[in-house]
Amino acid sequence: MDIIVCMKQVPDTESRIKVNPEGTGIVTEGIKYVMNPYDEYAVEEALKIKEKFGGTVTIVCLGPDRATEAIRTALAMGTDEAVHLNDPAFEGSDSFTSAKILAGAMKDMKYDLILTGKQAVDFDCSQVFGCLAELLDLPYVSVVVGLEISSDGKTTTARRETEGGMEEVIETPLPAVIAAQKGLNEPRYASLPGIMKAKKKEIKKIDSAALGLNADEVGEKGSKLKTKNFRLPPERQAGKKIEGEPAETAAELAKLLREEAKLI
Amino acid sequence: MSNNVWIIAEQKEGKLKKVSFELLGIGKKLAEKTGGSLSALLLGQQIDKLTEKLDGYGASKIFVCDSEILANYSNEGYTKAIVDLVKAHNPAILLGGATASGRDLFPRVAARLETGLASDCVGLEINNEGLLVAERPLFAGKVLVDTLIPEARPQMACLRPNVLPVPERGSEKAEIEKVAVELQPQDLKATIKEMVKTAGEKIDLTEASVIVSGGRGMASKENFKILEELAAAFGEGAAVGASRSAVDSDFAPHDTQVGQTGKVVNPNLYIACGISGSIQHLAGMRTSKYIVAINKDPEAPIFQVADYGIVDDLFKIVPLFTEEVKKLKAQD
Ligand SMILES: Cc1cc2nc3c(=O)[nH]c(=O)nc-3n(C[C@H](O)[C@H](O)[C@H](O)COP(=O)(O)OP(=O)(O)OC[C@H]3O[C@@H](n4cnc5c(N)ncnc54)[C@H](O)[C@@H]3O)c2cc1C
Ligand SMILES: Nc1ncnc2c1ncn2[C@@H]1O[C@H](COP(=O)(O)O)[C@@H](O)[C@H]1O
Hints:
Shape of chain B: elongated
Largest sheet of chain A: 9 strands, mixed
CATH superfamily of the largest domain in chain A: HUPs
CATH class of the largest domain in chain B: Alpha Beta
Structural class of chain B: alpha/beta
Strand content of chain A: 25-35%
Number of strands of chain B: 18
Number of domains of chain A: 2
Largest sheet of chain B: 7 strands, parallel
Radius of gyration of chain B: 21 Å
CATH architecture of the largest domain in chain B: 3-Layer(aba) Sandwich
Bound molecules: flavin-adenine dinucleotide, adenosine monophosphate
Strand order of the largest sheet of chain A: 9-8-7-10-6-1-4-5-11
CATH topology of the largest domain in chain A: Rossmann fold
Largest interface: A-B, 87 and 98 residues
Number of strands of chain A: 13
Order of helices and strands of chain A: EEEHEHEHEHEEEEHEHHEEH
CATH architecture of the largest domain in chain A: 3-Layer(aba) Sandwich
Number of helices of chain A: 8
Oligomer: heterodimer
Shape of chain A: globular
Radius of gyration of chain A: 22 Å
Number of domains of chain B: 2
């Protein structure tokens, strides 16, 4: 089974995000970048499937130079190969354009399954899996919390989290795109030998010319969705501390919620 | 190219989602600005009865795609039906709800139409050039941004539920247009085998108006019962959430996690019990209209965003507070 995992490097969720003075983006200095948390589940799932079926796991990452670090992390976890889509022209691509670039790289690759995260926790678009599947004419299942591959390796059964404590069980033929949600598995840590081995692995670099894409078809220029006016949301003010014995504070809270907030 | 506005009216098992009405409300305002008309799109099987429920909110037309193949939601089936219709009518704006189905569906629709999509918006407006401006949170709400789709059509956006009001209902009726759906079972590669209930009947956190959340301070799964009792005292529309620590300790199910890698919620009231208020947790609930924190540590960061805070043992406060809520509710 040959598996592709789409992985993005994003700011650590601990990061305090600042906006640049022009409001055109965020301040990137001082930010620690990590593998997108949902992509960790995708990598782990790919490795588990490989342990069962054999084959290869290839990381495909679209991102600038700094993304190499997250790619090394994925290799250290045990993935076999990595493709780094890296070109200044790619910068500022929206979800559809990112998917176009990723799909471009996959044209010449062999795969039975594509795993992604359900969302990249930077721009929170939650779109790339769907756009990618559409561009490759594949079925997809998003928000997946359970995955089985049939013993003949031809179909998958995915459990998709929906709403209100419901899950859908969806069967698809392979190849398919599966977008991982927290709960799918417990991502492993990279082992020390894994880290050593990852340092030596070759990362294949691909730019827009290699994909036959014009610079104005990708990046901010090629994107349909434009962003502007980055800003911080209004700060919340700390409110009232209610003091007293438990019976008093509980009653006071209920009273405030009724009279001030009109919520009861 | 028209200047018409379309919204997808989402139904599940014959019931319309509340966000459908929120979409009609904003859709009407947008259409007044663009000078176009507002239409709603309803997909499913045997959904005729639902159309009259959509009347009176400003839609002049309701397109009904009724087919056995659309009985269950699927991104392949729904995309085909929607895209065929959009191509035939060319609306300028196409809106849906950022629900479990919406967030699954719209990426495929947008990609097939080769247009842009603003996910999970919290505000929609028309600017001076007549373009849709969608306000969206990034980094789980740590940043806000405006997005525009200057050239491609339709301009697509999905609206986060519970952010915009459901408008007052008028008396006008919409024209119904039944649409023949050209879909065969074999058009769907992915098939739903089963729907599984992982918990009792409960409303989704993103749609809840009151959320009672527990953190590591709850200390066990059994203790979450006191939060369920508090939620029950608030009645319909209340749900129980959890911090990631509580979920990872198996106190609460995965789908109740609130935060940057959980659900982003914005209820009228969020009650955090035994939650410290980590940056990742705050990212998921800081837009709640009112926040209450119950925590025994006066230095807990959650108090910095709480409208009302009680520094005390939650096991003392929560049961007493539940009784107070019940008392007040009984007065009504
Ligand atoms: C990649 C990543 C993503 C993450 N995503 C999320 C996310 O989406 N959501 C999320 O919540 N976290 C997330 N986290 C985890 C986050 O960093 C915190 O660890 C977590 O939110 C802490 O949960 P907590 O507040 O329940 O626990 P703690 O921080 O341990 O706080 C427990 C609180 O309970 C109080 N307490 C204890 N006993 C009582 C009592 N009897 N009465 C009253 N108060 C009591 C304590 O004073 C303390 O403040 C993420 C972390 C990472 C690394
Ligand atoms: N630049 C990228 N490089 C590789 N994979 C990506 C990239 N952007 C998004 N993805 C994948 O698509 C998923 C959803 O991302 P998004 O649609 O941006 O929220 C992520 O979890 C990744 O698996």
